[in-house]
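debug: dumping io for the single-chain case to check the tokenizer round-trip. Nothing else runs in this session.
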Amino acid sequence: MSQNATSKHSPCTELEYAALLAENRLLQSKNKHLVDYVREKTNKLLQVMGTIVLKPEELDDATLIEFDPIGIVTESFTQILANLRKTNLKLQLAHQEIQAIFDSVGSAVLVLDPERKIISFNENSRTKLFSGITDFSGITDFSGKSCREIICQHRTTESQCVHSMVIASGHSEKCIGWEFGDRYYDVIGQPIKNAEDILTHVVLVYNDVTEHRRNSHALQRALVETMEAKDQVDGLLKSMSDGLIASDAWGRVVLMNAAAEQLLNSNLELCIGQSLPDITAIPMLKDYLEMLMLGSADHSADFELERSDGKVKTYQARSSVLLKNENVKGYITFLQDVSREREIDRVKDEFLSTAAHQLRTPLASVIGYSELIMESESLTAATLNDYISIVYSKAEQLSEIVNNLLDISRIEAGHDLMICQAPVEVEPLIDEALAGFRKIGHKHTLEVNLQQKGVLLNVDRFAILQVFENLLSNAVKYSPNGGIIKIEGVILDNYYQLSIVDHGLGMTDKQAAQAFDKFYRANASNTAISGSGLGLTIVRYLVESHSGKVWIEPRSGAGITIHITLPLCL
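debug: decoded output
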């Protein structure tokens, strides 16, 4: 059977079969190549479209050819391209709109990359930022250039650079009042990030605040000037020692300074809007204000008020009427402390009375004994000598009173006593002052206890001699029963303290506080110890003119100690 089959095939038939097989293999190879090419290109198109590639097990070769994916993809691309053209048209319109907004916005806007290179800028950047840069004159396109070199020109530090701040923080940043030429800008930086949250650009917006800043400064200056004017008025009102009350035409309070509030023991909040007479319970002041409202008040009126320290002060109320076109617009009432003026008036009266009394007593003796000498022809030499001694003594007393009055008058007129300071040894000065008292003070024992010998004082010799004599005279006079009078001296820093201790009548604390007042007499009765009441006043002026101090340490019924300090000769 095999033989028969073999015999049926001729050599020609075998060759044709072999050729067909070869052709078939070639066709299969070409077909596979074409299928692979179609699959490869299709997958590339799908990858471009972002679609998953075709796998052989999902779509075999025959189905691939029959399915025609390239045709399908081509149609998809045609649709995509059509959509892209529409999208591009919309993007172009949007870009034009954005560019129009970009160029028309009132601020200068720059878009920078992370290296500060300018990507884009609007027209206001050209006119406001680039136009004043002389180093880059003639350049119209600044894209790609560094904003630091073109705009800041290295005048802005890293800490002031908004671009650097945005790069560092990744968030919006701001710089207020950045100065560029003669203009001021508020610079705002905004980051732009991609889908991976990586910062790709920085947008800088420069808002010109120059006019706003100038207007703000002008307003601030105006406010400062207004506040200064207000402070000046407030300061003036606060610094006034006199009380001031302002009221309207109906007498209702509109203003009151601190001095008036303290005086009336009230405050403006309680008194504002009230009628003037209703703000006080002081009878004389209330009467004056009521008469003021009736238009029949005197020009001024005095009233007394007891202060918290127990002292009674005298105040004067006086008012001025504010007129406009002859119509009353308000009242200004001043409450002035006139205690010193009234005290001066009282002291003047007392001065005249005391001076007349002090002068009259020795003057009467001088005149009386002078008349006796002149009219009597039978006086013995001893009697005549006694009369002349009395006249001389009273004349000396008159001279002392007149000299003290003249010294006080010069001091209170503002003329300082003539002080000529020079080195003076303290011990001889004390001995000179004690010389006269040792002769007449047989009832008193004078003791000197100086801590150190040879101390030099920087003083006027005659002025301090007068001080010592006045103090010793008082110690002797106010120790009528005699006793020990001590003079003690000690160095304290740059001063020398002298203390005179007696064991006489003594003083109370109140008397010691008033002892240096003019004409003050602790005992003003007829049995009082004689004196002008000016000695200690003179002492105080003389000691204080040497930059020293004087004070009394009282011991009621057991004498006093009076201390003075005088400058050392350094």
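debug: round-trip ok. The radius of gyration is 58 Å.
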